[in-house]
Design a protein that fits this description.
Largest sheet: none
Structural class: mainly alpha
Radius of gyration: 26 Å
Helix content: over 70%
Low-confidence stretches: 1-14
Mean pLDDT: 84
């Protein structure tokens, strides 16, 4: 009985690779708790700065919802970028395998082991290569597997690669040469994108600092010269003015 029980435990521990739609994101329970807490905290600060009243609690809820949506977009973008950069690493590993005489199918299996060592078992590209390996076991066409990844990834570079594989298979061209040329084009595009993001990174950081400054000024006034802005709280005119400022601030 013990060997059977151990076998069942191993089955439960083995997780199947999950097909992911990269244009969507679903929070895990810890992530939802964390980001909801952060969003609520921001909402409380907004209520304190703009209204100084418990009756402004709905604004805190709205702020939390807006923050969760914004954070989800950031996580989607981050996951897509991770997939794209790690897909580039996969192409380099695949090119080496094909140059060594491997078939495309065996090259994928070999690259899978390289990606596990480079990025770890839980990485997005490792998950996708596991899906491909599972598909190859049941005799799915390799071009169909790449096309599926291209559609789910919502990335032009990955779609381009899947189209090149399909074209090479249909017209019987040199698969190694086609994939090598396509890899070079994709590498250049990804490197250009990476360099652009580096250049924009400092500007984005400056923008974040500038975005914090208006709130920082109000916090400073509230903590040091509260009487200077107390006329903005507890009256309709103040609510209208602060609401207008808040909308402009959020839009900026």
């Amino acid at each position: 009985m013990k060997p059977i029980l151990n076998f069942r435990k191993n089955i439960k521990r083995t997780k199947k690779p999950q097909r992911t739609d990269y244009s969507k994101y679903r929070y895990t329970k810890p992530e939802l708790i964390l980001y909801a807490a952060v969003g609520t905290g921001i909402g409380v600060i907004v209520c304190w700065l703009c209204y100084n009243s418990i009756y402004a609690a709905p604004v805190s809820v709205i702020t939390c919802i807006v923050y969760l949506k914004k954070k989800k977009k950031e996580l989607i973008k981050k996951r897509k970028n991770t997939l794209l950069y790690h897909f580039n690493d996969f192409l380099n590993a695949l090119n080496i395998s094909l140059g060594a005489g491997y078939s495309l199918e065996n090259g994928i299996k070999s690259s899978l082991e390289d990606m596990k060592q480079l990025h770890g078992e839980k990485d997005v590209i490792v998950n996708e290569l596991n899906i491909m390996a599972s598909g190859l076991k049941i005799k799915k066409p390799i071009e169909e597997l790449f096309r599926d990844l291209g559609e789910r990834s919502d990335e032009d570079n990955i779609r381009l690669f899947s189209e090149m594989i399909t074209t090479a298979r249909k017209h019987g061209g040199s698969l190694v040469k086609v994939l090598s040329d396509t890899r070079k084009i994709i590498n250049e595009k990804i490197e250009t994108k990476h360099e652009t993001e580096k250049i924009l990174g400092s500007k984005i950081y400056e923008q974040k600092i500038m975005s914090i400054m208006p709130a920082a000024v109000i916090i400073y006034l509230r903590l040091t010269f509260d009487g200077f802005i107390e006329q903005l709280y507890g009256n309709i005119a103040g609510v209208i003015i602060m609401s207008g400022c808040l909308l402009v601030y959020m839009g900026a």
